[in-house]
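User: For documentation purposes, I need each entry recorded in a consistent format: the amino acid sequence on its own, followed directly by the corresponding structure tokens. There are two entries in this batch. Please keep commentary to a minimum and don't merge the entries.

Assistant: Recorded as requested. Entry 1:
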Amino acid sequence: MPDALFDHPRLAGLYDPLEAGRPDLEAYAAMTVEFGASRVLDVGCGTGVFALLLAERGLDVVGVDPALASLEVARGKPGAERVRWVHGDAEALPPLQVDLAVMTGNVAQIFVEDADWARTLAAVRRALVPGGRFVFETRDAAREAWLGWTREQTYKRVELPGVGVVECWTDLVDVELPLVTFQATYVFAEDGATLVSESTLRFRSRGEVEESLRLAGFVVDEVRDAPDRPGLEFVFVARRTDAWG
């Protein structure tokens, strides 16, 4: 089940204004040119920012996400008719043939169970043409990003058009590697409502990720540095191999 941050209608509407400015998306968009991709699958597309960016540039894009509230935000944006939106996880995808599958925003870490991660990789592989690429990012556990997930370091008080003043912050709940749990809190000045979203992320090592890709029928071409968080994340560039299964 998606976290409330993405699936509660009121919180889903906050995502874009609170996360404005995504330099990583241009780097991923550049990979569509680098790899000559014209058909792209955006896994965990959320509110559709990246999918719409690609569609505006003439690519054939499919966006899939299990959070209906986020998809409703995406569907309400200008140009949304250019994207094929699918509600569900990657296993819910209809038959596809895409050149490139992309998973931005550390979506790869929401798959806490290895079985769920393996099923997602299998679904992505099915959607790719032979030789098609899968690009995604995941945080490097050695950098201990969770140490910054405290109210003191994350507190914001912002005024958003049509919403009013919102206070938000993150609290670290538990660290029991490879799992890290945190809680995001949002307080709406308009009516005093307080909404809370708890999330658990899986921190897999580079070796674990590479092995999971190999078992799923991919070969890792390279591991790049994250464009927006250099030194903190791995960006995997994997290719569907036919020398498998």
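Entry 2:
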Amino acid sequence: MKTIFNAILSAAFFFTSCNYGAKDSINSEIEEIEKSLITTIQIEGVPFEKHTLLDRMDHYNVPGLSIAVIKDRKLHWAKAYGLANDKIEVNTNTLFQAGSISKPLAALSVLKLVEDGILDLDEDVNSYLKNWEIPYNDFTKEQKVTLKRLLSHTSGLSGHGFPGYQRDESLPSLIQILNGGGNTPPIILDTIPGSMWRYSGGGYTLMEKIVEDVSGLNFEKVMDDKILKPLGMTKSTYEQPLPEVLALSASAAFDRKGEILDGKWNNYPEQAAAGLWTTPTELAKYCIEIQAILAGKEHGILSKATIEMMLTKSMNNWGLGPSLKGDNDSLMFGHGGKNEGFTTEMIAFAYKGDGVIIMTNADNGRPLINEIVLSISNYYGWKLDSPVMIELKQSDTEQLKKLAGKYRYNGEGGAVQAIEGEFVVEVKMENEGLKMIDKNGYFNTRLAQTGILEFTELDGGQVITFQQSDENNSYSFLYYDFFQFDKID
């Protein structure tokens, strides 16, 4: 795969300026960013080791990705890398599944209908629903589910996310999904609305039904007419399944081993929560519109007052759609996304006019996205994030040799359910330290020793704790504190 990546640097490269000097300058910026990736976990006292973007794509089994960078409320540059499928290269017009980035754009439909006087953010949502309602129970005695609470993940409704459906499967209706008739449990109200923050794709699915019920239109039609076209996002769609004419421009989805999913990708009838197909350049139009309205643009997609309300922090620093970070001039809005075989990120400064969108066609895209964001942030001085510094403990080579070997997941905790057969991880000695790998692509990382039996993944930052059994003097390790792997060799 590495030789393929090193041979491909997509020709699809968009510049906002036609001036050759400007192009040369932007080229220099991009080249510096591409060769300055570092892991988000660093060791105290050890110089940062820089990597190239293409090498890290190979390392993480990320076949393709696309980037758009915003500066001063304009698209500064966009570039694509790698493969969309076995033969076709990614370009800046290649469609990716946005995953949960679908949510903040979908939220605009509600805010638009509020401005049109059709919806009220603080009204009981049952007053808008047809053929389905939230049952009256002890939780609704005190507070009601409202659109404001649906958009800010404080409604009390269940349903974190959705796995999607293979392309040869029939898709359930919204009512079937809400009732648990699809491949996920029913969406239920199990706590007092407004009492806590809990991420709820189920809440956004209910919001989607409300939009359809009050408009009398399919959700993709509402989004196309009221949001996407007005934003100039003419290549984007919420339609599920993806129409064949657009499927020709779509990237396949790849698993953690870098292999294409059966059927190329999954379908998501939960359109508001996870159904958007788009590109980083298209998503940049959404970010730029929000920034422009805040800067005084008239006749935007929504009023400045509505956008300011959308970007007002609720519980857990969440707005009405996007997640929020920072304050005042440093306020940022955005969202991450994860569908089967796609991983994405969108970050934008509300008032400074900068931002970045990264979309990958890989299950294992998150650590690479983090490294790219860090490189871009460092280059432009955005101060989005800094590496986490850890103090390395002096290793005992003989102790490390005892930890080396093969470990099998014991099934506790319900992890990695999609893996067929046993899940075995190899821990091996490398450069007087330990490295962890497995054939399924979940692990491919060096371990930094931070305690006698405690290690940190240098790629993702997860803490791995080894334990020694008193009975047979063997070892096991815990991942995320509760997924246990027992040594078998």
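Summary note for entry 2:
The chain has 15 helices and 21 strands.
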